[in-house]
C-alpha cells in the first residue's frame, strides 16, 4: 500500500463523526460478546419457540450501569428491584455468568416472569438481554425494557410499543442485538439538566432529596404499569378534564393521559 493510499484511509477514518465511531465500536464489542448468538438469535427464536409457549413467558429488563443503581441513568434497575419486591422475590436474585447479569424467575398469575438486571455497561446491555431471551425462549415482542427518559420530567411515565431507540444507547444496544425494535418499553422520566450541567453528568448523577420524594410514587406506578403490561391488560385512561379534577381532589393515584394514536403507539402517565 502506497503512502498516499494509507494517508487517504487514515484521513477518512479521522473524519468519521465521533458518535458514529462510538456506535461502530459498540456494535463490534457486542458481536464479540454475543458470539454465535449474534447471527443465529432470530432464527433460533422463531423456530424453537411456539406461540402458545411464548404467551406465558415475559422478560422484564431494567437497563442501567452496574454499580450505579442509585443514578438517574439506572432508574430502570430501581424499577425492577421494586417489581421484585412486589412479587415477594427480592431475595431471589441469582447471578448468571453466561447471561452477564442477575435474574429472578417467578410466576405471576399464569405468566412465567423473568426479571433481568444486566451487569454490562449501558451501551452493551443488549448482549445480556439477547442471551436471556435465548436461554428462556422469550420472543422479542414479549421483552419489556425499563429505562430512563431525558425528554420527560421526573414523575412522567410512558409506555412505548416498539420503534426507534430515540437516542437511548441501552435501547439501541437491545435493538442491535435482538435484530428488531418491537420490544415494548416503560420510559421513566428523569428530566433534562438545568444550568450548565452536562447531560452525561446529569444522567450519571444521583437523585436529589427533592426528587427522591417523587421517586417513591414513580416506583409504585411503574410497577403497576409493568404488571398491566405483563398480563396484557388495558390501562384505564382518564377522560378529558379528569386530570384537572384529580389534581383538585389531591388524590395520590397518578393520572393517565392518552396521546393521539401513532406508530408506535405510546401512552403517557403522571405521578403526582
UniProtKB/TrEMBL annotation:
Q: Which residues form the signal peptide?
A: 1-21
Bias type Basic and acidic residues, positions? 260-272
Gene3D superfamilies per the record?
Peptidyl-tRNA hydrolase
Q: Which SUPFAM superfamilies match?
A: Peptidyl-tRNA hydrolase-like (SSF53178)
Q: Where is this region: Disordered?
A: 236-272
PANTHER family, sorted: PEPTIDYL-TRNA HYDROLASE (PTHR17224:SF1)
- Keywords, in A-Z order: Hydrolase, RNA-binding, Signal, tRNA-binding
InterPro entries per the UniProt record, alphabetical: Pept_tRNA_hydro, Pept_tRNA_hydro_CS, Pept_tRNA_hydro_sf
Give the family, as the similarity comment puts it: Belongs to the PTH family.
Q: What is this protein called?
A: peptidyl-tRNA hydrolase
Record EC number: 3.1.1.29
Q: Which Pfam families does UniProt cross-reference here?
A: Pept_tRNA_hydro (PF01195)
Provide a Gene Ontology MF annotation, just one.
peptidyl-tRNA hydrolase activity
Protein origin, superkingdom: Eukaryota
